[in-house]
Amino acid sequence: MLLELLDQEGFAGTYSFIYLPIKLKKRLSFGYAFVQLIGEKEALRFYNHFECLDICAAEAPNGQSLKVEWSRGAQTLEQQVDLYRNNPLMHTSVEDEMKPIILQNGVRVPFPSPTVQFSPPAHRKRSGRVLNSFLRCADNTPRIQATPAS
Known about the structure:
Mean pLDDT: 77
Low-confidence stretches: 126-150
Order of helices and strands: HEEEEHEHEEEEE
Distance between the termini: 28 Å
Number of domains: 1
Radius of gyration: 16 Å
Largest sheet: 6 strands, mixed
């Protein structure tokens, strides 16, 4: 659904990495996504487009409005791969649609293999809520990231 939205809005083939964090047990989005665009020009176009796009609150996750922010974390595709390739989220027990993806020219390509062995994601109970131990993001805002094409 996210890929279709991006493509419909004129961004087909302009992103190289997508990750939509999902609550594994409930199969629901946390309400934010990481989108790596192929260059600074595309990132600025994306930012301006979605910052100005009027999305009805009924269409947005949890009735929240859409907000686009520059990421303060990993900025390059290589950093994104390093962040996730050895993450429990990439374990074979996790369904493919719950994992981050890499694209080249709009076509999904295999994610690089892990360099270490790891266990499946663990779930812990805290204050009556189930928390995914592998998610490190503290806020629920959509983010975009730009890396000039090499």
